[in-house]
Amino acid sequence: MHAETTHLTHLLYLHGFRSSPQSAKAQQTRAWFATNYPEVVVEIPALPPSPHEAAQFMQAILNNWPQRSLAVMGSSLGGYYASWVSAQWHCPAVLLNPAVNPARDLQAYIGEQTAWHNPEEAFYFKPEYIEQLRELDCANNAATAPQLALIAQGDEVLDWQEMVQRYPHAKRIVLEGSNHALSDTFESHLPEIADFLYRLGQPASAI
User: Which residues contact 16 (CB under 8 A, 6 or more apart)?
Assistant: First the structure.
């Protein structure tokens, strides 16, 4: 056992498909930590469309961070990526309506897409990205770090029951109603989410 108290020092926030660091949840997360845990570094990168390039990008950030005090948080496709990060770095993860099978669900989006927060910004979602998504699938890997999943039954994009089944060992907050963006409920759950992250998923008695 290490004698020193360990808490979160670095948080990586991963946005979803067609989203960006300008998303409401990303900005609310940054603001909450700036006010309540200003010493925590919160990184919210703009992820490239290629899952392979996104993985390399995430690795480059995480390789420069202290391994025992980092955590990851992701929304939708970012939640899928966050599960991969958690498995690779054995770090705590918060998953917000996480995509469970994006290789299946994003087949319909192959082609030119626009960004939600900047419709003038277009990108091309290539067919080979589907296989790249499969390569990041860690659904069959046992979780090696604490996870918290915030799941909305009213998600209009993803199947909430699939999310519940995908994360049987996670601490789960299942919301009646709400929506995929968690636009009406996310901010109210930020204190609990941030507390989980700050404690690196450990019980309060362990800190």
Answer: 23, 74, 75, 76, 77, 78, 79, 99
- Which residues does 184 contact at the CB level (< 8 Å), separation at least 6? 178
Distance CA 137, CA 188 (A): 30
Distance CA 61, CA 41 (A): 12
d(CA 203, CA 34): 23
The strand pairing partners of 14, in sequence order, are: 74
Using the 8-state DSSP alphabet, how is residue 111 labeled? Answer: E
Residues 135-147 have pLDDT tens digits of: 999 988 877 899 9
Strand-pairing partners, residue 152, are 175
List of domains in the chain: 10-206 (3.40.50.1820)
pTM of the predicted model as reported, rounded to 2 decimal places: 0.92
Point out which residues pair with 125 in neighbouring strands. 111
CB contact at 8 A, 61 and 45 = yes
Q: How far is CA 45 from the centre of its chain?
A: 12
Amino acid at 164: V
Q: What is the DSSP letter of 69?
A: S
pLDDT digits (tens, 9 = 90+) for 29-73: 999 999 999 999 999 999 999 999 999 999 999 999 999 999 999
